[in-house]
Design brief:
The complex is a heterodimer. Chain A is mainly alpha-helical. Chain A has one domain: Orthogonal Bundle (Rna Polymerase Sigma Factor, Chain: A), CATH 1.10.1740. Chain A contains nine helices and no strands. In chain A, helix 2 packs across helix 3 and helix 6 runs antiparallel to helix 9. The longest helix of chain A is centred in the N-terminal third of the chain and has 21 residues. The radius of gyration of chain A is 17 Å and the shape is globular. Helix content of chain B is 33%, strand content 19%. By secondary structure, chain B is of the alpha+beta class. In chain B, the strands form two sheets. Chain B has a six-stranded antiparallel β-sheet with strand order 1-2-3-9-4-7, with helices on one face. A three-stranded antiparallel β-sheet of chain B has the order 6-5-8, with no helix packed on it. Classes of the chains: A mainly alpha, B alpha+beta. Chains A and B meet through helix 3, helix 4, helix 5, helix 6 and helix 7 of A and helix 1, helix 2, helix 3, helix 4 and helix 5 of B. The structure holds zinc ion.
Chain lengths: 218, 216
Amino acid sequence: MFTEMNTATIDEPPTETVVSRSWRAKKHIKGKPVNGTKESCDTRAEWVDHVKRIRDTQDQAAFAELFQHFAPRIKAFLIRSGSDPAMAEECAQEVMATLWHKARLFDPTRATVATWVFTIARNKRIDVLRKQRRPEPEELGWGPEAEPEQDDVIVLQQETAQLRTALSALPDAQRQLIEKAYFGDLSHREIASQTGLPLGTIKSRIRLALDRLRHAMN
Amino acid sequence: MSKTIKHHLTDDLLMAYAAGSLPEAFDLMVATHLSLCDDCRARAESFDAVGGHVLEQQGQPVSMSDESLAATMALIAQGAPTPKPARPGCAVLPAPLQDYVGGSVADIRWRSIGMGVKQAILPTGKDATARLLFIPAGAAVPDHGHNGVELTMVLQGAFSDEVDRFARGDVEIADEDLEHTPVADIGEDCICLAVTDAPLKFSKLVPRLFQPFLRI
Ligand SMILES: [Zn+2]
């Protein structure tokens, strides 16, 4: 499931320690992304660092690595969602360009990079395939003054890893239904039977992150 | 941020919002509620995490063309799309609604539908309808049923019906089974966002809502 580095981190109990380090601080988890293998899961904190490098120094090498990992997945996702390959290719490029332009808005205490990329790809699908606007909630950002704590970032990555483990352990039939839902193949009414997912822990974590963000914004 | 929201969105709506399969009008309802409610925002974002997992663990990523990275860098070099013009804040309309109204509460183009009640249909896709409702303080919207699912969220003031009292941020979810008579609180005019997936026949809306009065 996970690389050794990640497993080691995941086994640690979630820490509540608050220390004044920003996610600009030295990264905790080392290792290189392994493209195209099952091990390259989104819990790796260095994806977060890649986005940070794009945000802070327009780092093209970091972008190239993210591109190599995510663009083929976005393309596959869009094809599964009903796009033809040419349009999926074009949209995947646009999604990655959006990632570059919006790097400032990524909040690693509330989402992993994979989650964030998913939301951009989903919105692109709504825009292009359904030709519909996508209302989004009011934007919340840390702004230039405040930054999230590195520990909050790490814990969110861990919680996501645990969620992924739990989702992978679901019976095949249920996993396939969840995939169908996220590829846009289930209506809202059909989705109603699929909501009993193990989200309690990650939900509490995101809720806490929102509180801290609100506090920093005030 | 309202701290007192009692009536929230259901998991099926939040998951469908994360999956991107709701009609636009319902997306607008969810986005508006999430702007006021961090509890539901946290739930919605955890459903996003499920989407991140689905994206990540796909068995067969599809290779991009050889020149795709260069093409994307060229796209980036064209610059970011012009950001939406910053709007002055509005105490009644959260940001996603401001986008649909094109401004603040003063910019809503109300149309009277009788008895002091006004509505403004918002420009969304045709598979569901979103409208703003204005109910004068103390007024009742006569007994009415629903076709399909109807969600009503209070933006200003409050209303009470057979179910409960609903104030800013609260969402009432009504289906075919609910017959109710919402009454606006006496203190303040009530403004709500209402969305429905029933085919809304505008010519019939008024008669359906106001039949008891028109019959007098
Ligand atoms: Zn809520």
